[in-house]
Fold each of these.
Amino acid sequence: AIARRMTASKQTAPHFYVTVEVDMDEAMAWRARINEALGERGKISVNDLVVRAAALALREFPALRSSYQEGGIVRHEAIHIGIAVALEEGLITVVLRDADKKPLAQIARESKELVERARSGKVRPEDIEGSVFTVSNLGMYEVEHFIAIINPPEAAIMAVGSVREVPVVKNGQLTVGQRMKVTVSADHRVTDGAEVARFLQAFRRYLENPLLLLVE
């Protein structure tokens, strides 16, 4: 079923791809401080930051939370984010509902619960239905960069690589920075390259100024 859906997606949706590199220095330092403060109450993952930033950016770009159905474009108001989870039998997408309205700690808690249910074979119908945009993160496998196939009927999917230490130039000085590559695959029937680029600028703004993830 997964193979059929992905094949149909690639054959029917004209995919195009836009990649950006995100400066993660502030976000990683900020995440470390939050996790230290949380202690045993839970941890914020890099993917939780990505989901929150994507959800907030999607508020500004309704085309990226749309779908192409029966020859027309359908706009979705609720920002339900799909999170791709790799299982032995294949890929499943669990759905974090109203992700733009939830604080980071709640996103972290609900995401963990959804992934655990998926891996234990206990997903409920509402766990896997209704996503309008999907995040696929292979960073934990030390993957630098990849592109993903759109999860139909969505219009876009975000592929997230690992946070890497790389040489960067700051104020004329060579130093080491933490960077993450992100690629959005989008349906050209619904959006275009300039709009996806602006969406990624907004997404990057949230991660490079992580306090915005709290105040929005």
Amino acid sequence: MFSVTPEEFQSNWKPKFFVIFAGQALSLFGSGLVQFALVWYLTQQTGSATILATATLVAMLPQIFLGPFVGALVDRWNRRLMMIAADGAIALATLVLAGLFWAGWVQVWHIYVILLIRSLGGTFHWPAMSASTALMVPKEHLARVAGMQQTLHGLVSMVAPPTGAVLLGLMTTQGVLAIDVVTAVFAILPLVWIAIPQPVRLQEEQGGQRTSYWQDLKEGFTYVAAWPGLLGILVMAVLINFLLTPTSSLMPLLVTKHFGLGALELGLTDTLWGVGMIAGGALLGVWGGFRRRIVTTLLGIIGIGIGIVMTGLAPANLFWLALVGMAVAGLMGPIANGPLHAILQATVRPEMQGRVMSLINSAAIAMTPLSLAVAGPVSDAVGIRTWYVFGGVFCLLMGVAAFFVPAIMNVENNHSSTPTLEPSVPTASVLD
């Protein structure tokens, strides 16, 4: 297999990276179409909230429970081949499901299985792509690239559902699924022809023996635990996801019960949030953020908190204020997430990034079912707006407080002094 060093790739990185980026963008759009098509099918065929909730949970399980374990594999295996295999597995699973639809044999459990396989593929693909980006893109451009990625996600979240609805009016469900297979091919082809840099493992650099998988897994946990700034970021990510995830699920009730409005206004909240996200990603892509990326991230977190508080405090006769709040929250999302992602890509050792990215992502996603389970009863007891106000204020205060935590503020500066971790004997406690 051909290989390339980070320095060789970065000498002319833009044409190669953006060809890969374009392929991944098409695949992401195809995935958005599949998500809409399957949710619509389950809604039309079953009308069951339990089935829809189960489908959502099934899609989360691999990321929650397998993420940290997959991260160690991402750092051991060839990341380019891993992305090709992940995209290929997702495409093959989708093709099988399209065949089941075409034959008229599809059952709900078939959809669950395919969702599980697609999620498993994504669990491998995301950390591999994220860690590879850190080696393909010069450090000074990482925040801008992260802004472009945030803009892409915002566009897909806005464009894919209505496009899926139009396509379902023109063709069958299997036709929509087939489109996703084609977009996956466009994602795979650049990866086949473009060499992607691979990290040099520290032990190999020092002439040591290759460590075992279980040693690598333990090293990932130890690496995060031994770095106070990184650990602080992990705690913040978990708390923010716990507090803000329910705001999306509670929005239909806020619009109907508090504002006394309907589906059109509910759609406007999603639209304004998406427009804000696109604008925030575009702003970050052009601006790049402050020189100290952590400052940009913390200001973004504060801005998200302000937007959520505005939404929760809006009186029943001032729905426009809630729309402004959602737009502000959407705008500040990329401002918070983009630089944070760039910090991790620029400061975490390249051969550790799969483990660190997967661990943080899994911990954050794991809060989703827990927060939804808590937010429902709490909102029923004290009011829907209370969760918005409390969550937004806590998010705002956490962003302000982080400015006074030296470990977090210096997270970009002290990575070189992070202790070098020697290979250790794996213990059962790693799996607990």
